[in-house]
Design brief:
Rossmann fold; 2 domains; binds acetamide; AmiC_PBP1; Leu_Ile_Val-bd
Length: about 400
């Protein structure tokens, strides 16, 4: 965001004063903002991100904190409402004096917080897959960009099922943009066609999908691309099953239907549908299994690990490592240490990209099995560099197993 010179000077001065006053408190603790919804339409998935964040903070503190200083989460519940994200972020910055905020799920929430972190030169760590086409000096993006999930999903679904796709989404920016990208991918690379595109309100109930699933039954696409988010996801998949639509013949493919939404809808409804993500709970690696054991020990069984949980977890460790070296959470001091930094995450090695502020991730495609977990049916041979503006997005150069 550009500010007029005088406003910028005022902001800089206020910034300097605030930094001198705070961030590291009198007792040597380091306050960090944590902004995930515990109520509202995306509360289930965001609660998992909250617990991933608190889990990482606890691990860091148990290991002696950052240079002996404890991380203290200052946490608010923005109730899945973008205007509340704005208010809470403002409070975190201006009253609680945090330099760093971990938070946001919906792109509409990120877009509400973005001008504030830019205006006050703070840092937002965003742990959610999103539509791409964004860059900010004040954001680190640790969820998948479209070249790390949409491209692979388009390739996988069109090569196995066909390229006539019906799109169903929640009514906000991520679904519009994600559908535009999916539409381009299937048409440019497979000669495919969008045979339907429908949007429902964010708090859609099962009835809101009745007419849509009837239309899908009539049109019989090769697959459905769902960008429905949050608690409505279970209602869509349930309406789909009730209409007699079968994943064996017309599967639903998604980027937002994680283990959390699968648990909400139940395995009998979810089995056979597909999701693309860099992380699934089912990854059979020592790094993932030991992380899950440590998490379960500390946080019990209340949270279902998923890709947004994992990104929320590893981004706090990336922050802590950078701050250990930088000695400060000021954006200018911290950023050079963050860019290019790596972490051995549960999904495999992740690296923050210097030029885009996004993260090198490990794309995978999973199919829901009878236990409500994802069988990994495809994974990239190596981590994929983020390309949020889709400068290159060829299909077909991915390793399929
Ligand atoms: C999203 O809104 N980025 C899922």
């Amino acid at each position: 965001m550009r500010l007029l010179a005088s406003t910028q000077a005022h902001a800089n001065q206020a910034n300097t004063e605030q930094r001198a006053r705070t961030t590291v408190t009198d007792t040597g603790m380091i306050r960090v903002g944590v902004l995930f919804s515990e109520t509202g339409i995306t509360s289930a998935i965001e609660s998992s991100q909250l617990n991933g964040t608190l889990f990482a903070i606890q691990e860091i503190n148990d290991a002696g904190g950052i240079g002996g200083r404890e991380l203290v989460p200052i946490r608010y519940d923005p109730a899945s409402d973008p205007s509340r994200y704005r208010t809470c972020a403002e409070r975190l910055i201006l009253t609680d004096d945090v330099q760093v905020i971990f938070g946001c799920y919906m792109s509409s929430a990120r877009k509400a917080v973005l001008p504030l972190v830019e205006r006050w030169n703070r840092l937002l760590f965003y742990a959610t897959l999103y539509e791409g086409f964004e860059y900010s000096e004040n954001v680190i993006y640790t969820g998948a960009a479209p070249n790390q999930n949409s491209v692979q999903l388009a390739d996988f679904m069109t090569s196995r099922f066909g390229a006539r796709v019906y799109m169903v989404g929640s009514n906000y920016i991520y679904p519009y943009e994600s559908n535009r990208i999916m539409s381009d991918l299937v048409s440019q690379y497979r000669g495919g066609v969008k045979v339907g595109e429908r949007y429902v309100r964010l708090d859609a109930a099962e009835d809101d999908f009745t007419e849509i699933v009837a239309d899908i039954r009539k049109i019989r696409p090769d697959f459905v691309f769902s960008t429905v988010v949050g608690n409505s996801t279970q209602h869509f998949y349930r309406a789909y099953a009730r209409a007699g639509l079968d994943p064996a013949s017309i599967p639903i493919a998604s980027l937002t239907t994680s283990e959390v939404e699968v648990a909400q809808m139940g395995t009998d409804i979810a089995e056979g549908h597909y999701t693309a993500a860099p992380y699934f709970r089912s990854i059979d690696s020592p790094a993932n299994q030991t992380c899950l054991e440590r998490f379960t020990e500390k946080f019990g069984y209340g949270t279902t690990p998923n890709a947004s949980w994992e990104a929320a977890y590893f981004q706090v460790h990336l922050f802590a490592r950078a701050m250990r070296v930088a000695g400060s959470a000021d954006t200018e001091t911290l950023m050079p240490e963050l860019l290019g930094s790596e972490f051995d995450a549960p999904q495999g090695c992740v690296t923050i990209d210097r030029s885009t502020h996004h993260t090198h991730l490990n794309p995978r495609i999973g199919r829901v099995n009878r236990e409500g977990q994802f069988d990994i049916v495809w994974e990239a041979a190596a981590s994929v560099r983020p390309d949020p503006y889709l400068v290159t997005h060829t299909l077909g150069d991915w390793v399929v197993r």
